[in-house]
């Protein structure tokens, strides 16, 4: 009979560096953009690397910044309805973010992954 001690793999210190899996590789997360599971490689990683999700999220942020700039300048130039336009933009972004967050939490629950 093989003892439990003999069946164990060698201690990580005895294995070549490349063969030892990093603990972080084993942490499953849900991508905040596409809501698909991925193996987190950094503790602050929010997006998967397979579908340009970080770039998509950054592009959305840049697009919002441009929209906010135009709305602010219209307000500064006292254009009629400019303040209402700014609040409408903010409300739309809030709704979009809430929907995205809800989808993220549902995906985490479905995959049994910590949000
Ligand atoms: Zn993704």
Describe the protein's architecture and organization.
The chain has 115 residues and is mainly alpha-helical. It has one domain. It is 50% helix and 5% strand. It contains three helices and two strands; from the N terminus they run H-E-E-H-H. A two-stranded antiparallel ribbon has the order 1-2. Strand 1 and strand 2 (37-39) form a beta hairpin. It is elongated. It starts with a helix and ends with a helix. The mean pLDDT is 86. Residues 31, 33-34, 36, 47-48, 51, 53 line the site of zinc ion. Zinc ion (ZN) binds next to loops.
Summed up, the domain count is 1
Helix content: 40-55%
Give the N-terminus to C-terminus distance in angstroms.
Answer: 44 Å
Unreliable segments of 5+ consecutive residues: none
Number of helices: 3
Radius of gyration: 23 Å
H-E order: HEEHH
Which descriptor suits the 3D outline?
A: elongated
Mean pLDDT: 86
By DSSP, the count of extended strands is 2
Strand content: 5-15%
Largest sheet: 2 strands, antiparallel
Question: Class by helix and strand content?
Answer: mainly alpha
């Amino acid at each position: 009979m093989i003892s439990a001690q003999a069946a164990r793999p060698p201690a990580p210190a005895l294995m070549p560096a490349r063969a030892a899996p990093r603990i972080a590789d084993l942490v499953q997360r849900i991508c905040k953009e596409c809501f698909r599971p991925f193996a987190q490689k950094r503790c602050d990683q929010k997006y998967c690397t397979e579908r340009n999700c970080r770039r998509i999220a950054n592009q959305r942020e840049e697009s919002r910044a441009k929209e906010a700039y135009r709305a602010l300048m219209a307000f500064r130039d006292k254009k009629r309805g400019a303040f209402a336009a700014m609040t409408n933009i903010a409300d739309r972004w809030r709704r979009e973010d809430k929907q995205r967050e809800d989808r993220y939490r549902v995906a985490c629950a479905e995959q049994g992954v910590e949000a």
